Amino acid sequence: MTTPVLDVRGLAYAYPDGHQALYGVDLHVHRGERVALLGPNGAGKTTLVLHLNGIHTAGAGSVSVSGLPVTKENLAEVRRRVGIVFQDPDDQLFMGSVRADVGFGPANLGVRGAELDRRVMAALEQVGMADYADRPPHHLSFGQRRRVAVATVLVMEPEVLVLDEPSSNLDPASRRELADILRSLDVTVLMVTHDLPYALELCPRSVVLHDGTVVADGATYDVLTDDDLMRRHRLELPFGFDPRGLGRGAGW
After folding, report:
1. Of 27, 98, 114, 235, which has fewest CB within 10 angstroms of its CB?
2. Which parts of the sequence belong to the ABC transporter domain (predicted)?
3. Average pLDDT for consecutive 10-residue bins of the chain (252 residues)?
4. Is the whole-model pTM more than 0.70?
């Protein structure tokens, strides 16, 4: 069996105020998988994600990325391997141009000159934003800024792309364009989302987190058509959306 690219074992975590956010979470994601992380607000999804690149450190249990433990001494390499795209692109875009924003991470690691330019433009090509390299990010639409935020992570050549609510606040065209981009990427994807149709479209597998524990892990279609599971864990499909009408392999 190959080593999981993400290997979370028995992860428990309590915040300083004593709130226990995670209780012995196990999660194993293999190279090339696209996995949706589902659950109601307060389930522990964000807390789990912040352990994947060392923003939080485990109270108990372990997290590793392609066999590398997520520990203080490994943080620089872990954060290269696991890139997080936050829900608000403005949390990641702060330079005067798209090119400067995308180049910030590798430049910080000492990449310079032609190699930096190559990596920046390659990342922008992947998200369809190469023609906007010299535009100020704040002149772009919200959907375009989200794609640039994805590029700021791809430029680091990560093994895992973690997306926090990637479809939120996108118009239908931007939502579809981002889905096309995510399907085209040769990278492991973990997608935190409340957008269950998007999860079905993009992620063959879903993991459901509730009250800090994994309560389901299986095919997204099976999760979304398990009415009892959905009801017990406060997951609701949009009005009129029925996965059964789309067929089991919709969007894959």
Report:
1. 114
2. 6-236
3. 89 92 95 96 92 87 94 91 92 92 92 95 96 95 95 95 94 94 94 96 96 96 96 91 70 48
4. yes
